[in-house]
Write a structure and sequence with these properties.
The chain is α+β, with helices and mostly antiparallel strands. It is built from 4 helices and 6 strands.
Length: 144
C-alpha cells in the first residue's frame, strides 16, 4: 500500500464500514508508524482488498482488513489473512490478535476457520453504534 492507493482504499472503507478510517489515518500507518505493514490486493490492476497489521516484537495485530463486496466470498479475505499470518511468523511473532464486531458473522467464521479464538469482549468498542467487539487471538505455529 502506498499513498497513491488511498483514494480507492478510503472509498472501500466507506462502502464496507460504518466506523471508517480516513486518509490521515492511513497516511500515519504508511509513513510514520514503524510497526505498521499495509498491503493491497489487486485483481486486473484494480484494488479489491487491503489489510494492515502491526508487528510489535512477539505480538502482531490486524488493524484493518476489507474486501470489495463484489469480490467477497471468493477467498480473497482468507488469502490476505494467510499472508499476514505468514508475515507475522517470519518476523518471530508468537500471537496475532484482532477485534471484530460481534455482528460480523462472516468475518468471525473466517477468523475461526483460520484458528483464531474468542478471548474477550470489548464493550462498546465501535463508536458509531457502541457495538461490542470480540477480541480474537491465534497462537502462531512454529513459535514457542
Amino acid at each position: 500500500m502506498d499513498i497513491n492507493d488511498l483514494e480507492r482504499i478510503v472509498e472501500l472503507e466507506h462502502i464496507l464500514f460504518t466506523s471508517t478510517w480516513d486518509v490521515s489515518d492511513f497516511m500515519y500507518e504508511i509513513l510514520e508508524n514503524q510497526f505498521s505493514y499495509n498491503f493491497v490486493l489487486e485483481v486486473d490492476e484494480q484494488i479489491v482488498g487491503y489489510v494492515g497489521v502491526w508487528i510489535m516484537y512477539e505480538q502482531s495485530q490486524i488493524t484493518t482488513v476489507g474486501i470489495d463486496p463484489d469480490y467477497q466470498g471468493q477467498g480473497y479475505g482468507r488469502l490476505l489473512m494467510e499472508e499476514m499470518l505468514a508475515l507475522a511468523v517470519s518476523q518471530g511473532c508468537e500471537v496475532m490478535s484482532l477485534e471484530v464486531r460481534v455482528s460480523n458473522h462472516k468475518a468471525i467464521s473466517l477468523y475461526k476457520g483460520l484458528g483464531f479464538e474468542n478471548q474477550a469482549i470489548r464493550k462498546n468498542y465501535y463508536q458509531d453504534n457502541h457495538e461490542d467487539a470480540y477480541l480474537m487471538v491465534k497462537r502462531l505455529e512454529g513459535q514457542e
